[in-house]
Design brief:
- By secondary structure, the protein is mainly beta.
- The chain is built from two helices and 17 strands.
- It has a 16-stranded antiparallel β-barrel.
- Strand 4 (73-83) and strand 5 form a beta hairpin.
Length: 339
């Protein structure tokens, strides 16, 4: 069912304003924030003519709150709505995350629709963002978190856990039900489990993650059965190199792959307010036994303040080496503001 434009956002704002006013001042800690991220792009696919667009890159509006329950225990909640800043339309689904959580000396536990912005993090995607640098936004023309790394992040009907840090190491775990919520694909038709281990020090970051999927009646052709990924990043100078690689296992057919391997090699260079990012990537094409997806991107970001950043990027995506005339080339420039 399509939600009429604007109504859920207005209703959510009204509800949150009411709760904020009713919450005792001594107990309330509510934060309102978000991001607006837009670029003007030139995109060309194969031999077709170029497309010029003003593109939103995952803008959002968020509400977060917490309450000190005493004894080291804290209650937390979060609601983050996605919208397209170029058109004013809301995302489908409306909420990027919506969770309630408890945090204590034993770690954090969260329930709801979870992504890397919740207290328990995301076992796969949080590892990617800790190790690799994105070209501008990892959204729109630059997105690689989903297209190249398949690092699922935003999941519904989820339970997440994050351990305390032990000598720089922490564990993240998430279990959830998947599905479209229709009679033909009920929510309990598929289940997933993600586990991630991340270690941080002053000079390096390293991580390892695994995932397992099950579906009643068997997995779909584009659903992996199991996955692992690992990576590391060095932080010893202005230039920080990193590498991330992994493998996914699928139900193979005569025309598809059983195993899909992927790799990312990149570096970030910081010089004052300027940041340069270069990423080189390769991924097996699951739908083609011989196809490979090769991608390269470069980005330049300039911090005008702690909240405002100018961005420019160039991206070339081979899509599938077993097909002709499918390469996508994109260049763009824009502004990101965090509030």
């Amino acid at each position: 069912m399509k939600i009429p434009h604007g109504r859920p956002t207005a209703a959510a704002l009204t509800l949150l304003s009411t709760l904020y006013a009713a919450w005792p001042a001594a107990a309330q800690q509510v934060q309102v924030g978000g991001q607006i991220r837009q670029t003007a792009n030139r995109v060309q696919k194969g031999s077709a003519g170029p497309l010029y667009e003003l593109r939103d890159n995952a803008s959002r509006l968020s509400f977060r709150g917490s309450e000190d329950l005493g004894g080291g225990l804290r209650a937390q909640f979060g609601l983050e709505m996605g919208y397209a800043a170029d058109t004013g339309e809301q995302t489908d689904p409306l909420y990027r995350h919506s969770y309630v959580a408890l945090a204590g000396p034993w770690g954090s536990l969260a329930l709801g629709r979870l992504d890397s912005g919740n207290p328990t993090g995301s076992p796969l995607y949080s590892q990617v963002t800790a190790i690799a640098s994105f070209a501008a936004n990892d959204a729109g023309a630059t997105a690689i978190g989903t297209s190249m790394l398949n690092a699922r992040n935003r999941t519904s009907n989820a339970i997440g856990y994050r351990s305390p840090s032990f000598g720089g190491a922490e564990l993240m775990a998430r279990a959830y039900l998947r599905g479209a919520g229709t009679p033909d694909e009920a929510e309990d038709d598929a289940r997933s489990l993600d586990l991630g281990l991340l270690h941080r020090s002053d000079t390096w970051i390293a991580g390892l993650a695994v995932a397992k999927d099950d579906r009643a009646g068997g997995l779909k052709p584009n659903e992996f059965d199991a996955k692992w990924q690992a990576g590391a990043r060095l932080s010893v100078a202005a230039i920080e190199p990193y590498v991330l690689l992994g493998q996914e296992r699928y139900e193979a057919t005569a025309t598809t792959r059983r195993r899909v391997r992927f790799a990312l090699l990149g570096a970030e260079w910081r010089l004052g307010a300027h940041t340069l990012v270069l990423n080189l990537m390769r991924r097996d094409v699951q739908a083609s036994p011989t196809g490979a997806r090769r991608r390269a991107q470069a980005a330049w970001m300039v911090a005008l303040s702690k909240r405002t950043e100018l961005q420019a990027f160039a991206d070339t995506d081979g899509v599938d080496s077993s097909r002709s005339d499918v390469r996508v080339r994109a260049v763009g420039a824009g502004i990101k503001h965090v509030f």
